[in-house]
Amino acid sequence: MAKILVADDELSMREFLEILLKREGHKVACARDGEEALSRFQKESFDLVLSDIKMPKLDGLELLRKIKEHRPNIAVIMITAFASPEDAITAMKAGAYDYLTKPFDFDELLARIEALVRRSHKFAPDSNVLQVADLVLDRELLEVRRGGDTIKLTAKELAILELLMSAPGRVFSRTRILNQVWGYSEDPLTNVVDVYIARLRRKIDTPGREPLLETVRGHGYRLRAAS
Fold it and tell me: Which site from 69, 92, 126, 175 is most exposed, i.e. has the minimal number of CB atoms within 10 Å?
C-alpha cells in the first residue's frame, strides 16, 4: 500500500479521503493548505499526493510545481470542484499524473491510485510471486498454477487475477476492476467484468477444489484464502 499526502482546505473532504483511504490499507497524512502540504512533503516521504487546486496560502498548482522540483517522478493527482479545460491542461503540463473533478466516484479514484502506485513501485525479487492458498501467480513468467497444475489465462484474465491476489480478502468493485484492467470509467459492454470473472472462476475453481473467487453481492468480487 501507499503513503499518501492529502491537501485540501475543505475539512469534510480531508476527513472523507482519510477515512476511506485508511480503510483500504493506505497510510494517510492531511494538510489544510498548500503551505502545510509543502512542509509535510519536505519532511516526510510519500508515494503519492492528492491535492485540491483552489487552496489558501499556496494553491494546488504552485504546490505541484514545488513538489516536482524536489521529486520530479512523484505521482500527483489533482482534485478540484472548479474544473475547466485550462486548469486540466495547466495541471498536466506542470507534472500532474491525473485530474479528477468533484464530486467523483471513490472507486475510480482508488483504481487510479493503484495504477500509479503499481507503476512506480519497484518489486523485490521474491515479490514477483503471489500466492493465495494453493493458487500461485508468477508475475515475471506470467504463469499461473494451482496445486501444481498450470492454468492458461488470457491477458485480461491474468490482470484481474493479479489485482485480486494483490489483496486477498479485499472486495474489488466492478468499477475498480474495469478502471484498473480496461482503463474505462464506464462499462462499454454493460457486463464485461462479470463475463471475465465467470471465465476466470471456471479456470481456477475447477470441480473438486475449494472455491477461492467469491462474489460479494451488491459490492463486487474478492479472492479468499482457503480455510
Answer: 126
3-120, which class in CATH? alpha beta
C-alpha 74/C-alpha 102 separation (Å) is 22
Res. 117: pLDDT tops 80: no
pLDDT digits (tens, 9 = 90+) for 118-163: 665 544 444 678 888 899 998 888 899 998 899 999 989 999 999 8
- Give the chain's count of helices (H) and strands (E): 8, 11
Q: Own/partner pairs for 68-76, CB < 8 Å, 24+ apart?
A: 68/94, 68/95, 70/41, 70/42, 73/120, 74/46, 74/47, 74/48, 74/49, 75/47, 75/48, 75/49, 75/116, 75/117, 75/119, 75/120, 76/48, 76/49, 76/50, 76/51
Q: Where do the CATH 1.10.10.10 domains begin and end in the chain?
A: 125-223
What pLDDT is attached to residue 6?
A: 96
Mean of the per-residue pLDDT values for the chain?
A: 85
Give 151's strand partners.
Answer: 144
Global pTM reads: 0.60
Task: Tell me where in the chain the CATH 3.40.50.2300 domain(s) lie.
Answer: 3-120
Q: Could you tell me the three cell numbers for 80?
A: 478540484
What burial class does residue 161 get, using C-beta atoms within 10 Å of its C-beta: 0-12 exposed, 13-18 middle, 19+ buried? buried
